[in-house]
Design a protein that fits this description.
It comes from Dethiosulfovibrio peptidovorans DSM 11002. The chain is an alpha/beta fold. Helices cover 25% and strands 36% of the residues. It has a single domain, classed as 3-Layer(aba) Sandwich (Rossmann fold). α1 packs across α2.
């Protein structure tokens, strides 16, 4: 297996290169379970966001949850998780669909009505683990807009090359993509 050596937040990680299509491979970045990396990225992203005035953080389920939790702890904020399916306990959920570079099928993004009440009229930062094309951010922002939240920042440890241009996203490093060798 081929690997990419990632330098992020003062740490080094070996990421396996994984083919996601016949023409493209990515370095698979999964920070869940890597406490040291999550904590360091949370510290660095919080520093980069500076003194921006926020009321809450919001993230999509699931890989961005530990990062968002760590950032919320540092910033002394609460956070909301946008889920990937409607749950039986949800009341009046908001639903958006998205197709991202790392998924083969359309995904559903859902915000519980009780979470809508927590962020309506509030200034939020949307947090993710990697921004590729930006499709997930756009869909999450649509839910946030419908919820009446004011999205004042977007943040992720990594911006994947060849997709989103990075405008409006606070990020720490870029992550290359790799053409599949023929």
């Amino acid at each position: 297996m081929d690997f990419y050596e990632l330098h992020l937040a003062g740490l080094v990680r070996r990421l396996p290169k994984v083919a996601i299509s016949k023409d493209l491979s990515i370095a698979s970045f999964v920070m869940m379970g890597d406490t040291e990396l999550v904590e360091r990225c949370a510290e660095k992203l919080t520093e980069k966001l500076g003194d921006i005035s926020l009321d809450a953080l919001v993230c999509p389920e699931a890989k961005a949850i530990p990062l968002t939790h760590a950032m919320a702890r540092i910033m002394k904020l609460n956070y909301v998780v946008i889920r990937k399916s409607v749950k039986g306990y949800m009341v009046e959920p908001l639903v958006e669909t998205v197709r991202s570079i790392t998924t083969t099928e359309e995904q559903t993004l859902v915000m519980d009505g009780s979470d809508v009440a927590k962020i309506r009229g509030r200034k939020v930062c949307l947090v993710d683990d990697v921004v590729s094309t930006g499709a997930s951010l756009r869909s999450a922002r649509q839910i946030l807009d419908r919820a009446g939240a004011i999205t004042v920042a977007q943040a992720a440890p990594l911006l994947e090359e060849g997709g989103h241009d990075g405008e409006g996203v606070t990020f720490l490093e870029t992550l290359p993509v790799f053409p599949t060798e023929k």
